[in-house]
Amino acid sequence: MTCENIRSLVHAYLDSELDLARSLEIEDHLRGCESCAREVADVRMLRTGIANGAVYHQAPPALEERVRSLLASQPHRRGERDTKLPRLGWTLIGAAAAVAFVAILLKDVLPLPLAPVANTTHEVVADHVRSLMANHLTDVASSNQHTVKPWFDGRLDFAPAVTDFKDQGFSLIGGRLDYVENHPVAAIVYKRREHVINLFVWPMLHMEDSRPVAETRDGFSVVHWTQGAMAYWAVSSVNTSELEKFADLVREAGSSPLPARQ
User: Angle formed by the axes of helices 3-14 and 34-51, to 10°?
Assistant: First the structure.
């Protein structure tokens, strides 16, 4: 995968339109190419800004009043077709036409707004698959939460909670550093029988706690939620109901868990 390939596929990659194998190739390239990683991050930031309405500004109330006043001042007789528009009316039409023309010119340059959740789902599933394919499931292999949790100290600028749920059928086997949206995250690894569960954790400041949302992607179960200003994304090949049970255990072990689902 070359830098030229990356540039030609960046929008398809961010839209989750590529197959898993091609997406993994791109992500492997981004890990070793600072220039391409920066370009992808810039495009993602632009898309997020557009999706959040950062480039839109509401017209002041005075403008609406002025437009209405000008339109009301124009004479209009029933049955007579208007042949003139107020000067401001022509100005507004011209501006709208100009915007439409620019949009046509840039339709293949500027991306459409991206749904952040869909993109994150794509990334965590790709990270989960890579951890299994590359035989790099853990950086610290231990079933002792008091070994795994301190391992993250100094490697991340936050302290993820680590709990073993062996008695409930979800055994802690270790942890590692991973990346989501080009930022380091904690990956806490569990096993449910022969199924691996990757629990990705990273800070999500100023976000209210949310209940778990379950979905499937490429045959994998995904459950995500926010709690205590942290984002949690669990990915596994176990069925969705089992992964939701795991999510409830993690939430209940937190400092301020939400009520369990009814």
Answer: 30
Cα–Cα nearest to 234, from 192, 183, 182:
192
Query: How many other β-carbons are positioned within 10 Å of the β-carbon of residue 82?
Result: 9
Q: Which of 145, 172, 169 is nearest to 159 (CA)?
A: 145
pLDDT, tens digit (0-9, with 9 covering 90-100), for 160-197:
999 999 999 999 999 999 988 778 999 999 999 999 99
Phi-psi region of 261 (alpha: psi -120 to 50; beta: other; left: phi over 0): beta
Average pLDDT over residues 127-139: 88
Residues 23 and 92 in one domain: no
Domain span including residue 39? 3-51
User: Is 208 in contact with 228 (CB distance < 8 Å)?
Assistant: no
In a domain, 262, yes or no: no
